[in-house]
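Lecture 7 notes: from sequence to structure.

We start with a single chain of 186 residues. Read the sequence below before looking at the structure.
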Amino acid sequence: MAHPYERVSSRARRVVFLALLALTVVLLLALGRLYEPLNNGVATRGILSLELASTPERMSQVLRSWSQSSIMGLAFSLGLNFLCLAALTNALALACVMGSATVGKPARWGALLAWCQWLAAAVWAIQNSLLARDVLTLQPEFTTMSAWLAVVKLACVAAGLLYAVIACVIGLVRHRRAQELPSPMS
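Now the structure, written as tokens:
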């Protein structure tokens, strides 16, 4: 099944990809700063400890381990996270489509994984909404669903990232080999 990004010219894809990549890096750096105070002995993985808390008790335990100012920063970060999910998943979708030109036979995986990134965005948005509701009301009711959605989101994003990195490495190796070949005129 073709992905809509396949209909965009390769030059336009490259420009949009670079813009989204830059935005994603800026957002991830900002979120990283907001998430720093969330790492502690109880929440050893910071925000991931909250996202993967599969019971109300575990979520309450993680939330209680954070200061009020950390929770306020978390509330702000959840809104910023919506921007990040759009930038990151679209950058990865573009990378998967662009990478499909370099990988040869498994090229259809690029389009499939690009769709998977959009699925990740939808799942991520739902998960963020449930997480925000649980954090802001301090009444964790959707922890199990939120934790499962986080696993799906992370799996989709990881698969897209892995494919994009492999495609990039293949492309670089092929480019280097092409440069090393003697030209027919020599």
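The first helix runs from residue 10 to 35. Keep this in mind for problem set 3.
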